Amino acid sequence: MIEHSWLSTKEAAQLLDVSQRTIQNWVDTGKLKSTKTLGGHRRLMRSDVEGFLVLRESAMPAALSAVAAEPPAANELRVLIVEDDRTLLRLYELKFGEFNVPHRLFLAANGYQGLLLAGKHCPHLVIADLNMPEMNGLQLIQEIRKTADMKDSKIIVATGLKAVDIMKMGTLPEDIMILPKPIPFQTLETILYQQSSIFLKQCLM
Q1: Distance separating alpha carbons of residues 167 and 74, to the nearest angstrom
Q2: Does residue 125 contact residue 144 with C-beta atoms inside 8 Å?
Q3: CA dist 21 → 65, 79, 148 (Å)
Q4: Ramachandran region of residue 78, left (φ > 0), alpha (ψ -120 to 50) or beta?
Q5: How do residues 45-101 score in pLDDT, each as one tens digit?
Q6: Chain mean pLDDT for the chain
Q7: Distance between CA 37 and CA 110 in Å, rounded?
Q8: Read out DSSP for 76-101?
């Protein structure tokens, strides 16, 4: 059986395991290319969509992917960490496991995988490295901020770069918090408590 070269937004969403709305947003912002049929329906090239899929599946070992295997509970704060240093990524996992705040951790080893997980889970808190290959942290933040469902997400940059080097990459939004490396996990624990309190208050409204 020969596979079609084009996919509908629904088929692309199923292939990437994200919502159809996320696919439409990525098309609108130019992250994925599309064309339209005579009837006005969007079609995406299978090769473009599969390129995203390959990046996601090759970026993360199975042990890390398993952290996000089950859907989060209703009272769990959703936290996305994007970091290309695998050792540091595992340290995040261990440290967050010690925090007594209901949360679900999603780990990504590059910007593309981070964008996919953000599109699928709409995290309340995002912690991202800046200096990453392919898609750096600034580009990731810009894409996340284009998504209406994540306009209120708190974003933190964790980086070992100096201020002058950050400025060379571009301008960070004013509300982005910058934390230095090595990671101050005590500060992150405090932030997690604060965000959890805000999240729970919103749930009660």
Answers
A1: 38
A2: no
A3: 23, 21, 10
A4: beta
A5: 888 888 767 665 554 544 444 455 556 667 789 999 999 988 898 899 889 988 989
A6: 83
A7: 33
A8: PEEEEEE-S-HHHHHHHHHHHTT--S
Q: Give residue-wise pLDDT tens across range 21-48.
A: 778 877 876 777 888 888 888 899 888 8
Tokens standing for residue 113: 């995988």
Residue type, 67: V
CA nearest neighbour of 147 among 10, 30, 11, 29: 29
Rg of the chain in Å (alpha carbons): 18
Residue 51 phi, psi (nearest 5): -60, -40
First to last CA, the chain: 52
